[in-house]
């Protein structure tokens, strides 16, 4: 998905739906329909009407393709991946990117999904509705920072900082963090000499792009040292995982509908050690979890709950052949200096941490039970700590 985040509670479209059109909103929430909200700066300044909101509330068409949705006012859209395309009933065909999704709860404590869109499905955009900056990879960040040749001088200065960086062997995690943070801070100071990045609208993108570029440049010097610091923890985890390689997923209570997607999720997860920056590693974990959480959008299954997700991640950690899980978690948690998008990634990162801790904490005998008790998600997360 495009790299973007906002607080939906502050979105004018969502706020108007909740307050002025509360009956429509309440019905959608109680029936667990899908609500799509255009990002805040694309909502027209003109007064929104009932039809605007009906255009953005959907349910699946009974007996039709699970990726075909019908709106409250009878219009039809199709979803493919993270692209939503208007079809029947709309004034024009428009393909709109889904930026992110959030889980909300109705009066019966049942979950329903709210999706943020790159722009409205119909109507005119505001004058200041700029394109969403896509920032998910090192390549995206490099394109954002250095695509203009006039920035070459600043790039050379940042590259010089990376070239002079030295990592002391045998230091502490704090020493490594302070050293890398100092390079990141100096790099930010250099990049902010470029006038384009001085505006508040570009500041967060700039911070995340610089962090990703810097950490990718320091990765070979830092990541090996971080893994060395937590090697004893990874050794314990790997020993347990090797003994559990042949454990069947049904032994962990994983439903058949989710077992079908385990190979795809493993394929995504196996890229983790090839990614040099915290941003890319967090996106990898998010994509892995999305293999399962997006299934309700593409099929008629019940939504995945947190209690169902954790055993799935436990199984994936066991079969992933990743020898440095604790090293990766330490790197993600302690070297994401900009903290941009931390809320977006928190659920995925914490869920994987819980899976790693569950495996490490359990005696191998617990896995011999025919029907093991599902992991206690709340307890694990409340007691989860990273000790080096």
From TrEMBL:
* GO CC aspect terms: early endosome; late endosome; plasma membrane; transport vesicle; tubular endosome
* GO-annotated molecular function: guanyl-nucleotide exchange factor activity; SNARE binding
Q: Where is the VPS9 domain?
A: 231-368
Query: What highest taxon heads this organism's lineage?
Result: Eukaryota
Name-wise, this protein is Ankyrin repeat domain-containing protein 27
- BP-aspect Gene Ontology terms: early endosome to late endosome transport
Enumerate the InterPro entries for this protein.
UPF0507/Ank_repeat_27, VPS9, VPS9_dom_sf
